[in-house]
């Protein structure tokens, strides 16, 4: 049975993540390398663990989270779909069974807000994890903060946490933003579509999506 460590340490997969991050660097995007892959993987796994899903489902969510952005090495446009096709090829060659492979590829193919939606617990957890990874360390250069709103907003986030509260039936994204760097409205200007996607993903899992910024409840 294919494990997360098998996938994480596969030379080709690591190359595609590295190359995809380099492509996005050339295009002016924030970090999409091993840090984002690892954070997304563990966050997706934590969400399903908190909700009581079985170990194998959790492992598949961790795998999907780690490789969800490999399509960026082809093109940023439709990277979710190209990444899903790459996952089919790679994971099949590594011996993953078709029923699991379809779950992982389906989650990857539906993680982008332009074309995707939650179609399974794994895909819903991937969406929530991916869209919640907002942090200062994703900014590649401080020189762009003044001219690029995405860099400015990410750099302003001093702390970011996504937590599942099963008693309240909620998944809550808590952010601490330095408003001397970026206004809270800047966050909504660029991330509103992502937050709406998170809300639908949370609903798929039977949860409410909440957003807390600087201790103020906004969603």
Main features:
Hypothetical protein af1432, globular, 54% helix, 219 residues, four-stranded mixed sheet, alpha+beta
Uncertain stretches: none
Please write the string of helix (H) and strand (E) elements.
HHHHHHHHEEHEE
What is the fold named in CATH at topology level? Hypothetical protein af1432
Biggest β-sheet: strands ordered side by side in the sheet = 1-2-3-4
Task: Work out the helicity level.
Answer: 40-55%
Q: What would you call the structural class?
A: alpha+beta
Which outline best applies?
Answer: globular
User: If helices are DSSP runs of H or I spanning 4 or more residues, what is the number of helices?
Assistant: 9
Q: In CATH, what is the homologous superfamily?
A: Hypothetical protein af1432
Broad CATH class:
Mainly Alpha
* Main sheet overview: 4 strands, mixed
Give the number of domains. Answer: 1
Radius of gyration, rounded? 17 Å
Distance between the termini: 40 Å
Number of strands: 4
Strand content: 5-15%
> Any guess at the CATH architecture?
Orthogonal Bundle
Mean pLDDT: 97
